[in-house]
Design brief:
Blueprint lengths: L10 H10 L19 H12 L11 H13 L11 H17 L2 H7 L10 H13 L7 H13 L4 H13 L4 H11 L6 E3 L3 E6 L12 H10 L3 E6 L11 H8 L7 H9 L5 E5 H4 L1 H5 L1 H6 L6 H4 L6 E3 L2 E7 L6 H10 L4 E6 L24 E8 L2 E8 L20 H12 L5 H16 L6 H13 L2 H12 L3
Parallel strand pairs: 1-5, 2-3, 2-6, 3-4, 6-7
Antiparallel strand pairs: 7-8, 8-9
Helix pairs in contact: 1-3, 2-4, 3-5, 3-8, 6-7, 6-8, 7-9, 10-19, 10-21, 11-18, 19-20
Length: 483
């Protein structure tokens, strides 16, 4: 569980952030309709009561919430007419402006009125303030500016209001490709990528907030692939709010593996032919990013690195390199695949899987159209010399012998239940978990171009499980992680 750094968050301000701190066409002004339950005057009164210390600690609006809210309101002045301020918002600010200007600390007054300017308390704050001068007017940053700002925020020497304002502002302005790159490299420098002496390596990037509905097979898929001679690396966290679902790190803890491997220790396990994969916690490779998890709760919307972190590269094989990412909301997969291409990967794959992962459902409900992407929609590229071969396809499990009337869920969603179900499947117990391991391993290796025929990929995957080799690799990982 993360260490609480801020009061609150206040539930009413959270709801206000969900409505007004979004894109130029999705924002819903407060008080725009009669009977609107979120009144802008009530939100401002709650903020002022929080500043005056009149609310209990766990009910007060935090400085991060205030920063996100006021930055969002300022940015909306440049939005289309439909998503600009409502009459009720204008009236509320006119009523409370004298009190806001008197009560609010200088960094929040700056967020309300950027023309006033602001001097940061240290070098990191100065970087963020300079970036906000553009963000608050709807502008974009260069790659270098974004990377500097992201690094400053992750260093932890920046007030919560400025952090919340910068991150929510970037989301509202819809990050450019250069900004996406900057956030990724601020989290973990590409200069820090370690070489590993293996013929190929696949990075798997899943949402860090875990699973609350479906079994997550990534850890067990990595063991199956290791038995097939395909090395993998997984990365994530123990728990990520606000969803706080089951993560690979929690499952590894139940299985008795060490969850806190250093990058060097993980590299050794990847290179070990008896193991062939590794998991690395974000608190080991990017402690700054790990330490600001609570901020995600207070700004309501996911910060930009919640999308980019799944495309993090930690290692580079001496031979071929691949990356597989999952996503839910369309839009980020295109720039992330472009980034994977530009970094020299031999294959990249983005899957709209269950709960935003790269995991295929066992039933394709409705095929994708030009307007709508279905769960199991897959797109990516293969590198053929210097040429890029792009593809997109729905994966229909029934075409490969997986015939389910409904996509099944696991009965109990918990780390212990996931660990038990995965071990049973690797022991050869047939059923939906076994089928998930087979489908996900085989289709991933087929689409990356590692295996040329999907039916052959399924056959060799089943053999790796049924022979006990995949289970042996997972047991070796658990044991060797303690060496």
């Amino acid at each position: 569980m993360y260490t609480k750094q801020y009061p609150g968050p206040n539930a009413d301000v959270e709801e206000a952030l969900a409505r007004v701190c979004t894109g130029p066409h999705q924002t819903r002004p407060l008080g725009a309709k009669a009977g609107d339950p979120i009144k802008p005057s009530a939100i401002l009164e709650t903020i002022l009561r929080s500043v005056r210390g009149e609310l209990p600690y766990d009910q007060a609006a935090s400085e991060a919430q205030m920063g996100a809210f006021f930055a969002g309101m300022t940015i909306r002045k440049g939005f289309p007419k439909k998503t600009q301020w409502s009459d009720a918002e204008t009236a509320a600010f006119d009523k409370y402006r004298p009190d806001l200007e008197w009560r609010m600390p200088p960094e929040i007054r700056f967020l309300m009125q950027p023309e006033l300017g602001h001097i940061g308390a240290n070098a990191d704050e100065a970087v963020v303030v300079k970036a906000l001068e553009r963000i608050l007017h709807g502008g974009h940053l260069s790659y270098d500016e974004t990377r500097r700002m992201g690094t400053a925020i992750l260093n932890g020497e920046v007030k919560g209001a400025l952090k919340g304002a910068a991150l929510i502002g970037q989301r509202m302005n819809l990050e450019s490709y250069e900004e996406v790159r900057g956030y990724l490299d601020a989290t973990f420098s590409p200069e820090g990528v370690r070489k590993v002496s293996v013929e190929s390596l696949t990075h798997f990037g899943q949402p860090f907030d875990g699973a609350t509905r479906y079994f997550r097979p990534t850890l067990f898929v990595a063991a199956v692939r290791a038995a097939l001679g395909e090395r993998s690396v997984l990365h994530g966290v123990d728990e990520m709010p606000p969803k706080s679902g089951v993560t690979e790190e929690q499952v590894l803890n139940v299985l008795g593996a060490r969850p806190d491997l250093s990058l060097d220790e993980a590299a050794s396990l990847i290179e070990d032919p008896a193991v062939g994969f590794a998991y690395v916690s974000q608190r080991e490779y990017a402690p700054g990013a790990y330490d600001v998890r609570e901020l995600r709760v207070h700004i309501k919307k996911r910060p930009p690195w919640a999308a980019t972190e799944k495309a993090q590269q930690l290692f580079a094989a001496s031979g071929a390199n691949y990356m597989v990412i999952g996503y839910y909301h369309p839009g980020y997969e295109t720039p992330l695949l472009q980034l994977i291409w530009e970094r020299g990967f031999d294959g990249g794959l983005a899957i709209k899987g269950e709960e935003g992962t790269s995991h295929y459902a066992l039933r394709l409900s409705t095929p994708s159209t030009t307007e709508r992407q279905a769960v199991n929609y897959s797109q990516g590229f293969r590198r053929l010399g210097e040429r890029r071969e792009d593809f997109s396809v729905d994966i229909d499990p029934s075409a490969f012998g997986f015939n389910y009337e409904k996509n099944p869920r696991i009965e109990t969603v918990s780390p212990a239940a996931f660990a038990s179900a995965g071990m049973e499947a690797l022991s050869g117990r047939e059923g939906q978990i076994y089928d998930r391991l087979v489908l996900n391993t085989a289709m991933t290796d087929y689409l990356l171009g590692i295996c040329s025929d999907p039916h052959d990929a399924i056959g060799r995957t089943k053999e790796a499980i049924d022979s006990g080799h995949a289970l042996a690799h997972l047991k070796a990982y658990i044991a060797n992680s303690h060496l």
